[in-house]
Amino acid sequence: MALLKAWNAACSSPVGTPKVIVPRNYAFLVNPVLFHGPCKARNIDFVVSGIILAPNSPKVWNGCDASQWLAFRGITGLNVYGAGTIDGRGKDWWDQSCRHHPDLKGCIKLAPTALKFLSCNKSRVRDVHFINSPQTHVLIMRCNGLHVSNVTIQSPGYSPNTDGIHIQSSHHLTIDDAKIGSGDDCVSIGDYTSDLQITNVECGPGHGISIGSLGKGGNFVRVENIQVSNAFFKGTTNGARIKTWQVGKGYVRKVSFQNLKFDSVKNPLIIDQNYCNVRGQCKELETGVQVSDVVYKGLLGTSSTAVAINVNCSPAMPCTGISMESITLTAADAGKRVVASCGNARGIETAVLPRPCLRS
């Protein structure tokens, strides 16, 4: 309540740039809370210098929205920054996760996101350290003009559904200079997202930088103008990934992955247009999300599996305009070889190792 009282005082201040400060050398236990706008000031600062701790028992969320811990909603000119820590203390949630303990009576499918930005425009988050969120660490939804920089996100590789940053229905975004290790995607890009730049990201452990999954409910997908550059993946499940469901419609287009490095990554380059609950078990459909105009340039490193390039597109909705240039992927284990596998994909390749596999 003290934190919420400070927020309300700052948000209602009409002059200057009011600040809410979480002071250093202190740790604050904070129950689920929503900081809402609009605020009277044109800009408002939320300074995290100390530690914000989540309750360590899921029981605290009884009667509350189990998907949410800290959230900002409807604010323009919000700046969240500081060298402090936001600690989701997620272990008790992971220990009851249905994903890891499907036979556990009363297992948990939905767990809190550490920090949500909901309908926040022209805002920024920088320098903050996030650890051990019960589920996704940072969610950006229905935002315009948000900049994430110099953040670190850490949770164990075994922690379920702990995406680093998830983006949904948002536009004109930048993520740069981030270090992310988690139990799911380092960055995941959901539907209705456009004009996103991701640069200088270190990813690992985790599932890579993923567009998708998209179209699960048969909806019309709109994702375009996504640029990922200067990223490093170490020991991740995937590197640059696009994944869509067969029942989806719409498009993913104008995407580029440039200057990426991989160290023992299972799927350095992967497009899966046939994403399925049980891999390989879904019936082939006539629908699909159109994947087109995707550029891969300057990819270098090692694959921990035999298939370093995996482009699995739909016969009903082939991938088109795929460009691969200056790619060298070799086996992480000395003496082994890697291959490229492409299906229903058209494009051009220049200086690609392993062997080219796209249809011209």
Please give the share of residues in helix. under 10%
Profile the largest sheet.
17 strands, parallel
Structural class, from helix and strand content? mainly beta
Number of helices: 2
Count of beta strands: 28
Order of helices and strands: HEEEEEEEEHEEEEEEEEEEEEEEEEEEEE
Mean pLDDT: 96
Hey, roughly how much beta strand do the residues contain?
A: over 45%
Radius of gyration: 21 Å
Silhouette? globular
Q: How far apart are the first and last residues' alpha carbons, in Å?
A: 62 Å
Low-confidence stretches: none
Topology record:
Elements: H1 2-11, E1 19-22, E2 27-29, E3 33-36, E4 44-48, E5 51-53, E6 68-73, E7 78-81, E8 85-87, H2 91-94, E9 113-118, E10 121-126, E11 129-131, E12 138-141, E13 144-149, E14 152-154, E15 165-168, E16 171-181, E17 187-189, E18 193-203, E19 209-214, E20 220-234, E21 238-245, E22 249-265, E23 267-275, E24 290-303, E25 307-312, E26 319-331, E27 339-343, E28 345-353
Parallel strand pairs: 1-4, 2-5, 3-6, 4-7, 5-8, 6-9, 7-10, 8-11, 9-12, 10-13, 11-14, 12-15, 13-16, 14-16, 15-17, 16-18, 17-19, 18-20, 19-21, 20-22, 21-23, 22-24, 23-25, 24-26, 25-27, 26-28
